[in-house]
Predict the structure of Derlin.
Amino acid sequence: MVNLYFLYQYSTRLETGAFDGRPADYMFMLLFNWICIVITGLIMDMQLLMIPLIMSVLYVWAQLNRDMIVSFWFGTRFKACYLPWVILGFNFIIGGVIINELIGNLVGHLYFFLMFKYPLDLGGRSFLHTPEFLYRLFPSRRGGVSGFGVPPPSMRRAADDQDRPAGGRHNWGQGFRLGDQ
């Protein structure tokens, strides 16, 4: 049950954070991680692959939000970049077997390194690109509505810009001098 919570929580945070408006890129991350985990599972004769997928998604989120402070069991607080390793250590203490968590962390690191770290921080060429067919299936979007039907801030700014008169002047009404009735 805790694993389902982690999957929902961190997958949602990734989809609405780093991959906001780019569902094709988000789907590519999931497909890349899933394919790597399936290949590893076939090589290592693993039957259950859900935990490595959850951990790979959590690892990518944690690296993209490195400095965010997160809370873990019993009120322990630390930086998000340590969360996948804390979960791995916690599961080692509880169950003793950590191969699933370790594979998930390694696959998540492979995606993060090839997509973000190597091309952006180390100046290397980008090895991973989202295929065009995913952009056709999941077109990039901006706008829509956020919680409770309220337009997101970018949509509100665009609507405000349309209401303004031309020339960059503000339409504040006729106004009144202080002291006048």
The first strand starts at residue 69 and ends at 71. The chain has one domain: 2-148. Residues 2-148 form one domain. Strands lie at 69-71, 77-79.
